[in-house]
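hey
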């Protein structure tokens, strides 16, 4: 079914929604949205009347999960449906069911996505002033700084649920393992490292009754979100553990320092490259593009590490191992930045939103 209005379909995940969902779907239909996909994420029989009224609206497709599977899984169910049933859709807009996103803002994000030819991820960016509940301000503040460091993205709103997702990005997102609120953070990281431009469209900030309708659990769901960011550090820690363990073992077997350093580094790199490529940076660039750059960075890292360890061990008058740990810790940020912004960075896609 092709939309005559040219507007992309809107995907609305819903868990135990109120009448706000009916009002939102009605207003979107009045604004020319001809395709609305609503996912009942295991809301239960108490919410059946709401979904019955929504399903009766023109252009609405209702998909159901028998049990609550999380916002990320609901979004992936909707994305799979769009990819399978709407071949003409260049992308899809996601919106929350609780009334936080105004119909006019959803339309602006949709038109900006359409204006890009479906090539850029468009985020509806809220303003976090004092009218916003404290838990939302604090959560977004931490996410802003974490995403800025980890992914190199300067965004005003990292947790917005109003997004215009290009079709090509949706094809990658349906394979993501995340199933809860952390899925939306994974989406940002995947877009950044797959070369999709990211644009922010300012939207109104609406919180009804202090955001009581939100099913976001501050502690549990924040831990899930920040575990996504923790993966970056975890791969580096495991790499360092392999490196230092092999290095210490080689020295204990009387291998000379240069041989121990080479053996340790090769062992660590055999783990770090595939782990960083897939689990951390979500890179699908061909190996002939990423591997030579990775090895060049590794070679430069090894030379700098070798020289600094020699100098520091002599200056301290101590052993190789303390000097190695100190030097590798200092080189970690530079190594990370080079991998993030050069080795695994995809070439920018054409058609960036202006």
């Amino acid at each position: 079914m092709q939309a005559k209005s040219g507007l992309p379909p809107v995907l609305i995940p819903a868990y135990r929604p109120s009448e706000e969902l009916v009002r939102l779907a009605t207003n979107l239909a009045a604004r020319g949205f001809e395709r609305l996909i609503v996912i009942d994420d295991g809301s239960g029989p108490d919410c059946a009347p709401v979904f019955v009224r929504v399903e009766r609206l023109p252009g609405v497709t209702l998909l159901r999960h028998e049990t609550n599977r999380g916002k990320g899984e609901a979004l992936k169910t909707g994305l799979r449906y769009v990819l399978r049933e709407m071949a003409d859709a260049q992308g899809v807009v996601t919106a929350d069911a609780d009334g936080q996103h105004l119909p006019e803002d959803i339309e602006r994000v949709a038109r900006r996505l359409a204006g890009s030819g479906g090539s850029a991820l468009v985020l509806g960016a809220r303003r976090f002033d004092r009218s916003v509940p404290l838990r939302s301000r604090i959560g977004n503040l931490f996410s802003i700084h974490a995403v800025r460091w980890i992914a190199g993205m300067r965004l005003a709103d990292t947790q917005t649920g109003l997004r215009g997702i290009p079709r090509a990005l949706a094809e990658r997102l349906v394979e993501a393992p995340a199933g809860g609120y952390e899925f939306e953070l994974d989406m940002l990281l995947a877009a950044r490292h797959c070369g999709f431009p990211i644009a922010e469209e300012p939207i109104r900030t609406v919180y009804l009754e202090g955001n009581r309708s939100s099913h976001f659990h501050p502690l549990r769901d924040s831990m899930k979100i920040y575990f996504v960011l923790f993966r970056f550090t975890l791969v580096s820690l495991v790499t360092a553990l392999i490196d230092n363990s092999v290095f210490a073992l080689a020295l204990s077997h009387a291998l000379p320092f240069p041989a121990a350093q080479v053996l340790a580094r090769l062992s660590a790199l055999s783990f770090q490259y595939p782990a960083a490529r897939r689990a951390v940076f979500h890179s699908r660039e061909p190996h002939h593009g990423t591997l030579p750059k990775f090895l060049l960075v590794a070679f430069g890292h090894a030379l700098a590490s070798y020289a600094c360890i020699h100098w520091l061990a002599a200056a301290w008058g101590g052993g190789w191992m303390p000097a190695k740990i100190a030097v590798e810790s200092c080189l970690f940020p530079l190594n990370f930045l080079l991998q993030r912004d050069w080795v695994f960075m995809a070439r920018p896609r054409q058609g960036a939103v202006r």
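The longest helix spans residues 218-252. The chain is about 55% helix and 10% strand.
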